[in-house]
User: Which sequence fits this backbone?
């Protein structure tokens, strides 16, 4: 899916180059002393046709990116699952850390209660 999208964007880039070329040809024809209006119209028509197609393709890609960036479910995305996994992993690590802190606190409390008792038994 991502490869197809990149290839589609590559095609759009080629169409943009074609669009610029058509515009350049129309301007070149207009700059001549005896410009052929038929050629100018042909190049202008090709320019507008390509430009409309480029606009449509870019709109499709922008809509797709809008869906992806807002977290809406869409075909082929693992963003939501990855985000949930990372959040769960973070919670797990936090829980482990807190349990370790509680274990250390318990051990210190036990050690402090054992020391005074042993000190009383050994006068």
Assistant:
């Amino acid at each position: 899916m991502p490869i197809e999208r990149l290839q589609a964007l590559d095609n759009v880039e080629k169409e943009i180059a074609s669009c610029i070329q058509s515009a350049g040809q129309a301007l070149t024809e207009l700059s001549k002393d005896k410009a052929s209006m038929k050629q100018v119209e042909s190049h202008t028509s090709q320019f507008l046709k390509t430009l409309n197609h480029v606009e449509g393709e870019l709109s499709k890609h922008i809509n797709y990116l809008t869906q992806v960036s807002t977290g809406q479910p869409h075909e082929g995305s693992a963003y939501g699952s990855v985000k949930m996994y990372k959040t769960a992993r973070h919670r797990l690590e936090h829980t482990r850390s807190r349990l370790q802190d509680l274990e250390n606190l318990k051990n210190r409390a036990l050690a402090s209660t054992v020391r005074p008792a042993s000190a009383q038994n050994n006068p």
